[in-house]
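Sequence, please.
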């Protein structure tokens, strides 16, 4: 008896179902309790997940130090360098509980053989809301 090709997919479907049952689905620890229905849903908000000891690399998000100050209006911003000489890119140490940010400027290494062939940089002045979204992504949410 010859089988119809359209209906002859049992083996493939069975293998797919078997593979899906055997896969180890990994849910991040911070999301596990929320999916199961326990815990506080606000604990998964990025503001509650920030490790204040971690430096967050914002690369070319800020055009200058004044843009950084304008992007975090409700934060106390400090730096160890002279503010007039601060140039992007910046790494930030963010403490959400204390509402403080420590700024660390750094220099990107030149990865190009010719000095004139520099990578393009951001030319947009992001709003504070857009910077909040960028911060959420950089933290890893």
């Amino acid at each position: 008896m010859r089988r119809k090709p359209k209906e002859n997919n049992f083996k493939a479907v069975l293998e797919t179902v078997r593979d899906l049952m055997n896969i180890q689905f990994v849910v991040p620890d911070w999301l596990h309790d929320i999916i199961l229905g326990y815990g506080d849903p606000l604990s998964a908000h990025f503001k509650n997940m920030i490790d204040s000891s971690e430096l967050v690399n914002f690369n070319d998000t800020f055009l200058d130090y004044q843009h950084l100050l304008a992007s975090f209006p409700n934060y106390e911003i400090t730096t160890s360098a002279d503010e007039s000489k601060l140039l992007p890119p910046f790494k930030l140490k963010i403490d959400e509980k204390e509402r403080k940010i420590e700024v660390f400027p750094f220099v990107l290494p030149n990865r190009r053989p010719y000095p004139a062939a520099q990578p393009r940089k951001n030319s947009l002045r992001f709003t504070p809301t857009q910077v909040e979204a960028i911060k959420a992504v950089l933290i890893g949410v």
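The chain is about 30% helix and 15% strand.
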